[in-house]
Records
---
Amino acid sequence: LMEASTGQVLFEKDPHALRSCASITKVMTLCLVFQALDSGQLSLDQTLTASAHAASMGGSDIWLEEGEAMSVDDLIKATVIMSANDAAVVLAEAVSGSEEAFVAQMNEKAQQLGMSDTVFKNCNGLDEEGHVTSAYDVALMSRELIRHEKVFDYTLTWMDSVRGGETQLVNTNKLIRSYPGITGLKTGTTSKAGVCIAATAQRGGMNLMAVVLGSNSGKERFESASTLLDYGFANFTRVEAPAPENA
């Protein structure tokens, strides 16, 4: 459990244990995509085309076909709301030219953020040998992503659609319908990673981030994240300390 503005850890258990994190990987993917939006390299209304590589992704996806065109806005929607692996790859290729080059950028960004437990091998979190992170590192990259407040437009959307309404998207983060003050952020599930979540919430001007990796079920993941956030909001407040007067 981390407070976002300061990066202060409020609770931890095995924070640096190396783990798979499934689609929570996409937090870093989205950091680089929003960075590209901020710099003008990408725009939300820009149309991108799915490569054969992107269309070949398994797991959670929106069944993109090779050559299919979709706007950056819809691809981000699919990546955030439905955790679409294929959409994440299309965005990665648009930013860096190839998924491989994008993954190199992800690892570079991880080093800049002080994520010393992390090695990324892909941009979407599909199980791959050596693709590891830690709860602490997930909190660091989540903290970076929520600096881009535009992401909340997507993380707080319960249902949406792409392809002109043909493909329904339902948010994988059930907390957005039940937890007071929830703002996001990302879920992930694979056989190797277990059931994971990076949950962000804001109350009384304080932003908290709870990271839970390796749960046994969705219910356990959401309950654990809620418990952590409840603990933070019940026991901590954020205050501005007055500047010391010159002696």
---
Amino acid sequence: VPGQALERSIRDVFLPGELKAALVRLNPEIAAQPDRADEVLYRLNAILLAVGSEGLARANQALMEWLRNEKTMPFGENHQHVPIRLIDFDDLSQNIYIVAEEVTFKPARVEKRFDQVLYVNGIPLVVGEAKTPVDSRWSWFDGAHQVQGYEETVAPFFVPNVFSYATEGKVYRYGAVGMPLDLWGPWREDDGQEHSHEGLGHVGQSVRAMLSPQVVLDMLKDFTTFAARGGKTMKLIARYQQYHTVNKIVQRVVLGKTRKGLIWHFQGSGKSLLMVFAAQKLRAHALLKNPAVLIVVDRIDLDT
């Protein structure tokens, strides 16, 4: 839909009506007393406001706990704490997905307009910047650089962000908040087919593969993590090869037919982070009932 057709104020990060409806739809305790949705919305907006003092990565980390349904509120019997669900990860048809173009955001004096925003239940999880393919002066890099500028000037909009992407119709790259541009990576499907690595066809393949509800929500739930480096919080997000490999590991463990396995890596392909993502997904998998995961490392920095 066009950004101007969204039911929101120019100052709103969330789509309030969509988010409240999702809270009522996904939480019986809130459905019993719909005004409780306003309490949750108040908590979420407080995290947006804290971005100025906390920094974007830490605010993003705090909101990720809500988005992964890890936070509780005293809405149960005798004020018992119950988990609050903002997104249904088990039945994806229970969520509302909106792609909006030309979304304007003006929290104060500065006004910015995003080319594409992907909303799930009224929450902006993905921002995309698209440049012209017919002017050689522009590339995906300019779009990504623009996104980084947005993160600095209108940071509240990126507090719920899972990842952003940039393209000029020839190359597709994505990255997380605060990620240096040289770490923005491509996305390829793991279907055994030969794919072009550049051009409109490549961008189309990447968009169809990565921007599906399944992958976006998978990335949110199991394929992002945070690390402290030099006193600063950094957000880390999976590369495509880590994503596909972890899902194969988990599938193999769930099937339980084979007791062992081997993964072969190039140096620098991200094997340590792959193990973090694998452990994260295995421990959260309902069928595996919180398994123990043993990780053996051979260097002090990996241990840290």
